[in-house]
Amino acid sequence: MTLLSTAQHLARDTRRDPRSHMILIMVAVTIAAGAIALVAYLLWPTWVARPASAPGRLPVSVGATLFNVPTSAIRRKIQRHSGPQERVDLSFVFPSLEPPDAPKHVSADTVEEKVQPIDRIFVSISAHHDSLAPDMRVRTIYPRYLEQKTAPIDDALTMRAFRDGSPYANEDLFSATSPSLNARCSRDGQTPGMCLSERRVDGADLTFRFPRSWLSQWREVANAMERLTAQMRGPRG
What is the residue-wise DSSP string for 104-152? Predict the structure, then answer.
């Protein structure tokens, strides 16, 4: 009612003074602008766009073989996509076999404080392109360079050293049948010894890497590699 009375009053004043019509126009514009601002405020979206989170697992094809790998376990950002790939590198916390947490920032002042024992098992999935299978390498290539003596480690695990001067000098071959394990391990030196254990899955080879010191619990390690292989395999027709 107040606005209507004001408009009527201004209309009467306009008839008396033609210049006062500008005031009436300004009032009308102000009212219209206020109405538009109110409508815009009520209709303005209040949600905030957020980037889509990465999927928990990614289907990847390596050597025409399907694997379903945890996204957060992939070590290289460039490999974090689905579809065909030549190679995928992953790591898992042992013994939980969960993907590791995101790395924390380490400064030059705290780098020594952050050094911790290795608690991860590393896995590389790569296309083999019809190269010699890992089990064939154990049966036909390694024996050419191994010492004759076999050293029992416990009731099921044995060790044979590679000869000095061979392509595998300063390494040892550990073998067991139940559970199955073949691991070629470097010896401890300035850096802790590391072991490689390989297996073939259709068109891809899986290479596991873990500290030699873990052989004290070799059954758990062998079972962990078997579990990871089964978990990452895609559906088979």
Answer: PP--TTTHHHH-----EEEEEEEE-TTPPPHHHIIIIIGGGGB-S--EE
